[in-house]
Amino acid sequence: MTTAPGTVLLSGVVGSTAYGFAHAGSDIDRLGLFAAPTEEFHGLHRPAESHVSTDPDVTLHEAAKWCRLALGCNPTASELAWLPDDLYETRSPLGEELIAIRTSFLSAKAVRNSYLGYADQQFRKLLTRDTTDPAARRRAAKHARHLVRLVEQGVRLHETGENVVRIPDPERVRRLGERIADRPATAEPLLAAAVERFSRPGVLPAAPDPRPAEAWLRRVRAAHYRPPAERAS
Known about the structure:
- By secondary structure, the chain is an alpha+beta fold.
- The chain is built from ten helices and five strands, in the order βαβββααβααααααα.
- It has a five-stranded mixed β-sheet.
- The chain starts with 6 loop residues before the first strand and ends with a helix.
């Protein structure tokens, strides 16, 4: 994990490794959230909210930014609170508290908009790929796999309230992704079926409950504040 200008509260391995798509030579993606020192919020310039590196591939979000992303049900950020236990690399007490309130971030509209929206982005990328080029064909297959993943994860969230990050049958998704990469129109029934299932009543509330996140963030700020006299000593 890369160095953050604060305290890392929760971090782990995400992306293809978490989904079960990784193969020999796959990059290992890491995601985490950190608490900036509270006193840094008291001046004219607020601390940076995200830090991204590519060697290794690490993304760190400041605690408040992560909460805003999760309240919008951003698929990439949200999965940090739903990882299988073996993929966590940092789990502080405050990180454990965040995992415990993860369902409060969920809402029906945001899950539908974000998961279907991201899946549609992957579909549109497929339509512009020249799959006669081997490198472009590999990228198309990756987009197709993530399209299938996003649709299935989003529908499962809508219907059960659970975000299953590790795909139960990654080889099935891989095979389907290969077919979609060759013929993008193959994805259209999948997307249409997802729209239909999202139109049915699900288990998620109409809006998220921001109160647990607000209370958690205030505990984070209190825990990471050092009075001026203490800093000078």
